From TrEMBL:
<dbReference type="InterPro" id="IPR050483">
    <property type="entry name" value="CoA-transferase_III_domain"/>
</dbReference>
<dbReference type="InterPro" id="IPR003673">
    <property type="entry name" value="CoA-Trfase_fam_III"/>
</dbReference>
<dbReference type="InterPro" id="IPR023606">
    <property type="entry name" value="CoA-Trfase_III_dom_1_sf"/>
</dbReference>
<dbReference type="InterPro" id="IPR044855">
    <property type="entry name" value="CoA-Trfase_III_dom3_sf"/>
</dbReference>
<protein>
    <submittedName>
        <fullName>Crotonobetainyl-CoA:carnitine CoA-transferase CaiB-like acyl-CoA transferase</fullName>
    </submittedName>
</protein>
<dbReference type="Pfam" id="PF02515">
    <property type="entry name" value="CoA_transf_3"/>
</dbReference>
<keyword id="KW-0808">Transferase</keyword>
Length: 408
């Protein structure tokens, strides 16, 4: 029994930010009913190759992208554009604690599935709306996508090589980080709203905006700007406030060095065979190292280039200097620590071919994360949910299937 096994979530979201939030809740035990279009389902089901699995009965393929954000959920395929479909979703919402949706602002009101409509029959409902720009403001009705928001929200302005270096220019992060962070913030907001409801009995709407989240997550870079009025430069893999804190080229690859204090820097210098650097006025403090960044980095690079990555790791790790390799994904999942921590979960064969997913990073001692079910096939639980929660009979469901209102 997971920590949230007393909760039921109605997930009307697609793609990544909303499904990421509902997957976190599902991992923690909540019952998540994912409402999808009967014909195409969540858009990301078709975002392949690569394909994570194939339904053994229908040969329907499921993309790796979809599988990464939709385990532990029940797929109910309903056409919300049809009045009967709308009534089904309304009835499901009346028995749920939380609704998550990422339609355009006002997009669900035409179906009677907006917050104002649903709270009439379920005043305690927590209704989380995820959009690119929020429910209010001059951009509220614009569509918003992760790449777009990384650019508009400032992340790309501080990501990439400095001007004048090979490959210079702004870059997006290699995963849809803004979507992921918005899913995390949405989850925090949902948990806070549930705590408020526990105290007051009141539900509420949560307005989660990708742009808001991206601006908030600029963190120290945004604070550097607010404090100085200066645009933080792109520094490649270097850190704006700490030196040395970047990658260096070894004789056979790269190594990352992350020095966080003066004691670590002293041990690092000893490991390099240059103990005098730690007492040199140019380098003895982090402020001095920032002022002499280019000089110090050039000196370090000359030394690091003389040995292999593994040799430097052996030398520096014995001195408790924070360092590590730059792994590709094969190396990540082959890493003994990653394997020990169980960061890969393999679901056995069922109605679909077996699928492997990335584990949750949450570790709870009393109510651990559960991996109850693989990402669902489209409409795989429609019949069961309609029978169990709404009391529909076989003939009623078969008629809905015949009319194209649901898929089961």
């Amino acid at each position: 029994m997971g920590a949230l096994s007393h909760l039921r979530i109605l997930d009307l979201s697609r793609v990544l930010a909303g499904p990421w939030a509902s997957q976190i809740l599902a991992d923690l035990g909540a019952e998540v009913i994912k409402v999808e279009h009967p014909d195409r389902g969540d858009d990301t089901r078709a975002w392949g190759p690569p394909w994570a699995s194939t339904d053994r009965w229908t040969d329907e393929r499921q993309s790796a992208y979809f599988a990464g954000a939709n385990r532990n959920k029940q797929s109910v395929a309903v056409d919300i554009a049809h009045p009967q479909g709308q009534e089904i979703v309304k009835a499901l919402a009346s028995g749920c604690d939380v609704v998550i949706e990422n339609f355009k602002v006002g997009g669900l009101s035409q179906y009677g599935l907006d917050y104002e409509s649903l709270k009439v029959t379920n005043p305690a409902i927590i209704y989380c709306s995820i959009t690119g720009f929020g429910q209010t403001g001059p951009y509220a009705h614009r569509p918003g996508y992760d790449f777009l928001i990384q650019g508009m929200g400032g992340l790309m302005s501080v990501t990439g090589h400095p001007d004048g270096e090979p490959g210079d220019g702004p870059l997006k992060v290699g995963v849809a980080l803004t979507d992921i962070l918005t899913g995390l913030y949405a989850t925090v907001g949902i948990m806070a709203a549930l705590a408020h409801r526990d105290k007051t009995g009141e539900g509420q709407q949560i307005d989660a905006s990708l742009l808001d989240v991206q601006v908030a997550c600029l963190a120290n870079q945004a604070m550097n700007y607010l404090a100085s009025g200066q645009q933080p430069p792109r520094l490649g893999n270097a850190h704006p406030n700490i030196v040395p804190y970047q990658d260096f080229r070894t004789s056979d690859g790269h190594i990352i060095i992350t020095i966080g204090n003066e004691a670590q820097f002293a041990r690092f210098c000893e490991g390099l065979g240059r103990p005098e650097w730690s007492t040199d006025d140019r380098f003895a403090t982090n402020s001095a190292r920032l002022a002499h960044r280019h000089e110090l980095i050039s000196l370090i690079q000359r030394v690091i280039a003389t040995r292999t990555t593994s040799e430097w790791l052996d030398t520096l790790e014995t001195r408790s200097v924070p360092c590590g390799p730059i792994n590709d994904l094969a190396a990540v999942f082959a890493d003994p620590h990653v394997q020990y921590r169980g960061m890969r979960v393999d679901f056995p064969d069922g109605d679909t071919s077996g699928v492997s997913v990335i584990a949750s990073p949450l570790r709870l001692s009393a109510s651990p994360v559960e991996y109850r079910s693989a990402p669902p096939r489209l409409g795989g639980e429609t019949r069961g949910v309609l029978q169990r929660l709404l009391g529909f009979g076989e003939e009623q469901i078969n008629n809905l299937i015949r009319d194209g209102i649901v898929r089961a």
